[in-house]
């Protein structure tokens, strides 16, 4: 059984490039070519599980805030940060009333292309939804970039940012006075049926892998709560776990390979035991006997209104 990074779909785990052995990749945005890539196949595979996991309880407080935003009559301007192939917009736009213009941000032009092609067209009440794409580094977002924003969203993004980047994001949202719905950040906890003594060691190594290069990984939600609260925002957090069973076997298989692969990249001494572990888990998955809960959190930050959108 292969726990090598080359067996893992890009985005599900550590990414191997042709001819490259997986090694610690330092975070250096000057070398953005080195930033990990997310395969559209991975984002498409996870989209239904993400949709099922999203915390519905945050929608009503968000709708109430949006209904009371000054300048709302011109429609909503929604900035989706790290949009990937646009999964967040496809889920949220049809759940909000009124005309919407989505500004889809990502640093990967290939993913932006997918997002533009499969963008949502209609709001909950049938109003028009339009989109534009913006290529760039969302970790350097300035308040200027959010002028006129009604809402900032992100999905599966916070955990790949640093504390400083989250503070920059919180400051930009506070400057714009707009709410932020930041969903599906990993919580660092996983439950599998038929618990195995190696589960915890792999989870701990995976979490350490996520923290490489100063990224927040499972600490992202706590850091975001602090950053938004420091700007006077009211912050609500709700669980949004993936609950994966036999119907999600393809996603579970890729997730398992990525989870174990990252753990072994972090702790190569785990490799001999992890190979057997992965083989057994994949066999159970293929037999429809594995259930996995991967814990995430959704966060809604309601900024102090600035008095004009
Ligand atoms: C795990 S994917 C999630 C994609 C999408 N939001 C979804 O839920 O399917 C993370 C996305 O964030 C983008 N991303 C990560 N860091 C970024 C940064 N600093 N600036 C812009 N985009 C970034 C990646 O290119 C990728 O599309």
From TrEMBL:
Transmembrane residue ranges: none
InterPro entries per record: Methyltransf_25 (IPR041698), SAM-dependent_MTases_sf (IPR029063)
Sample GO molecular function, one term: methyltransferase activity
Official protein name in the record: Methyltransferase domain-containing protein
Domain Methyltransferase: 78-174
Annotated source species: Streptomyces aurantiogriseus
């Amino acid at each position: 059984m292969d726990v090598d990074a080359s067996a893992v779909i890009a985005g599900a785990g550590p990414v191997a490039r042709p001819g490259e052995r997986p090694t610690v990749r330092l975070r250096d945005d000057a070398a953005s070519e080195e930033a990990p890539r997310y395969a559209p196949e991975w984002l498409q595979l996870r989209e239904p599980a993400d949709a099922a996991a999203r915390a519905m309880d945050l929608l009503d407080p968000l709708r109430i805030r949006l209904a009371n935003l000054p300048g709302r009559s011109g429609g909503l301007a929604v900035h989706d940060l790290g949009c990937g192939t646009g999964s967040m917009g496809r889920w949220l736009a049809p759940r909000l009333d009124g005309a919407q213009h989505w500004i889809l941000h990502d640093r990967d032009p290939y993913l932006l292309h997918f997002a533009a092609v499969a963008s949502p067209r209609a709001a909950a009440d049938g109003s028009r939804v339009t989109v534009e794409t913006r290529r760039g580094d969302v970790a350097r977002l300035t308040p200027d970039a959010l002028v006129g924003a009604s809402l900032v969203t992100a999905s599966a993004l916070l955990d790949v940012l640093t504390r400083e980047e989250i503070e920059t994001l919180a400051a930009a949202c506070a400057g714009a006075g707009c709410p932020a719905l930041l969903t599906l950040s990993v919580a660092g906890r996983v439950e599998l049926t038929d618990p195995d003594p190696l589960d915890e060691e792999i989870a701990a190594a995976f979490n350490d892998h996520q923290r490489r290069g100063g990224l927040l990984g499972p600490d992202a939600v706590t850091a975001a709560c602090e950053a938004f609260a420091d700007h006077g925002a009211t912050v609500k957090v709700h669980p949004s776990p993936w609950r994966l069973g036999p119907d999600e076997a393809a996603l579970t298989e890729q997730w398992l390979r990525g989870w174990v692969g990252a753990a072994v990249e972090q702790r190569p001494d785990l490799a001999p035991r992890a190979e057997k572990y992965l083989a057994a888990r994949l066999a159970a998955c293929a037999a429809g006997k594995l259930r996995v809960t991967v814990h995430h959190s959704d966060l809604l930050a309601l900024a102090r209104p600035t008095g004009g959108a």
